[in-house]
Automatic annotation (TrEMBL):
Source organism per UniProt: Heterocephalus glaber
UniProt family annotation: Belongs to the steroid 5-alpha reductase family.
Transmembrane annotation, as ranges: 12-30, 108-126, 133-153, 165-192
Localisation: Endoplasmic reticulum membrane; Microsome membrane
Taxonomic path: Eukaryota, Metazoa, Chordata, Craniata, Vertebrata
GO MF term (any one): 3-oxo-5-alpha-steroid 4-dehydrogenase activity
InterPro entries: 3-oxo-5_a-steroid_4-DH_C (IPR001104), SRD5A/TECR (IPR039357)
Domain 3-oxo-5-alpha-steroid 4-dehydrogenase C-terminal: 150-221
Protein name per Swiss-Prot or TrEMBL: 3-oxo-5-alpha-steroid 4-dehydrogenase 1 isoform X4
Keywords tagged on the record: Differentiation, Endoplasmic reticulum, Lipid metabolism, Membrane, Microsome, NADP, Oxidoreductase, Transmembrane, Transmembrane helix
Length: 221
């Protein structure tokens, strides 16, 4: 019989997939409420550095708390440790390094910051608890990784988004779980409309912007 929390984690994953699809539909019609499009949204603002650091922090805090305040039964296995470390390294950068690299970032609408904080809280719990307590992998699960390299911005507008989509799709393939798959799908459904919006913005603002450059997938889209 499955543990009750595992069923809850599965339910969270399905809910995340559904939410991602809803976000995808909405963001095809509305501008993304942060960055260069933030001025189109009403309400109070949060300084960019503060917003990015705070909203990403729960995703970093969950694995740290799990490792220090509990005795996760699956983290004695190498694949689980490697996968959780991959997740942790990403959010160390997103919450502790990236915010301080921002130069002149536009203030973020408070509602965006709050929604991102809630997402990182839920997703941090989802990924951390599954990898720490329930995910079972063979000891040889971890194999030689492959990495994309090259000047992708020559071929697509949103190379940074493609990198994040590939990152979390790779994480989902490595984890081979419903929870990580939900995270990858949510990432794609949120970033794809924003990439399309970026592409349209560049075409409108710069007459010499390469018309052959694709949006997110080189040579295809």
């Amino acid at each position: 019989m499955e543990p009750e929390e595992l069923r809850l984690l599965d339910a969270f994953a399905y809910l995340m997939m559904l939410t991602g699809c809803v976000c995808f539909a909405l963001l095809l019609r509305l501008s993304s409420p942060y960055g260069r499009y933030a001025s189109q949204w009403p309400g109070p603002r949060v300084p960019a550095r503060v917003a990015w650091a705070l909203q990403e922090l729960p995703a970093l805090a969950w694995p740290l708390l799990e490792c220090t305040c509990a005795s996760p039964q699956r983290l004695d296995r190498l694949p689980n440790r490697v996968l959780l470390a991959m997740y942790l390294v990403h959010y160390v950068h997103r919450s502790l390094i990236f915010p301080f690299l921002i130069r002149g970032g536009k203030p973020m609408p408070l509602v965006t910051c709050v929604l991102a904080f809630l997402f990182c809280t839920c997703n941090g719990y989802l990924q951390t608890r599954y990898l720490s307590w329930y995910a079972v992998y063979a000891e040889d699960w971890v194999t030689q990784p492959c990495f994309l390299a090259g000047g992708l911005f020559e071929y697509i507008t949103a190379a940074n988004y493609l990198g994040e989509v590939v990152e979390w799709c790779g994480f989902a393939l490595a984890s081979c779980s419903l929870q990580s798959g939900a995270f990858a799908l949510f990432t794609l459904t949120v970033l794809l409309p924003r990439a399309k919006q970026h592409h349209r913005w560049y075409l409108e603002k710069f007459e010499d912007y390469p018309k052959s450059r694709k949006i997110l997938i080189p040579f295809l889209y």
